[in-house]
Structures are given as C-alpha cells and as structure tokens.
Amino acid sequence: MWEEEEKVEEKSMMADVAFKIECKILPYDHVSELSNAITNLAPWMLENKSIGVHTLHGPDFGNGWVRSEKDQIFLSKRTRLILRIPKTDIDKVRLIEGSTLNVLKNDIKIGISIVKPFLVVKDLICRSVLCDPDQTEENFLLEIKNQLSVHGIHIKKAICGKTKSIILMGKHKFTRSLMIADLSKEHSILLQDLGIGGGRIYGCGILLPHKSIDAVPNFKED
Asked: Which of 130, 134, 141, 159 is least enclosed by beta carbons within 10 angstroms?
C-alpha cells in the first residue's frame, strides 16, 4: 500500500503529444535524420529551443541478447512518436497527422495523436544530456547543479551514466544519461518544462518520469 501525497496544481507550459506511427525498423542512430524530417514538415518547431523530439526506442534486450548501438531497432505497434511542445502549439503540431516521413530510407506513417500531460513524480531521468567527453562525472554533475540553480532548482541527489557517442548533423557528439531524485512536485514539473542543456530538437535534455512506485498514483494509460 501507499498513501498518495497531496496533489499540486499542474502549471506546466509544455506537454507531450504522442502520435501513432507505422514503421517496423530504423537504424539505432536515427535521431538527427528523424528530427530533420519532422522539422521539414513543421519548420516553426525550430523557433523554440524548448521544443523536443523524443527518440524512438525498441527493446534493449531479450532472450539472452543485448542490442548493440550499431544495430537496427524493431518498432512495435505500441511505439509512439512523441513531441514535447508548448501547450499553445498543440493544435498546430497535430497538422502533421496523416503525413509520411522518410528516415534513412524507412517510411514512418504518422497517425492520430493524444496529449500526455506531465506526470508529477519525485524522480526524473534523461536518456541523453549533451556533454564534454573529457569531463569527469563529478564536474558533469556540478555543471548540471549550477545550471538548474539559476532556475531555483537545488538538486541534492543525482546520478549520471556512461558517455555515449551520437551523430548530430554529421558530427560526433557525446551524451550522458542522468537521473535526478527527490524533487519537489513543483520542481518536477518545472524541470520537465525546462529540460537540461541543449539539443532538445534532437532528443537531448528531455526529462521523463523514472519508473518507480512514485509514478503509480499519477499514471495515465494510453
């Protein structure tokens, strides 16, 4: 059992718009081409650095195997193309429904969408934060702490993952995964609005609820 904490009014400026898609397979490193295809359809998305494109993900492992970063990913029917958009632009972004993207010679048919408000949880994760590959974990976390303190968010618990290489606009960039824990509800929403670092349009710096029991009382099924 658990006792749900008192809810706070959600005051987020952003929301995730999740589109059904038809696409069976994509190369693992597809983020740059995916974002370029989407912004070709909706160039206005490039005018706001807070707008983000979630990368598409398949299973990381199963039946004894672990996927290599050089592999292709297989997308299930439940996979969604998710765009983080200002709430004021939700109707505008829905105009891409019915379009077809071509990403690295793979067609992605975009279907209907639903709006997914942010979950109010204490723990957030980010799959990819742009970073300096020569930066130590300690300095990386200190930089994140200083960046967020400007917005009045004072983090006390954070863990980062290993550095990974991705290709953005034909150039190698480096990212780290990040988890931030024990946020207040107000700061949880604010941090999902703000994101961390740059490259939001390429899937970097987008905060997501960590899969923990804290998210259960607020969970909303598609």
From this structure: 134
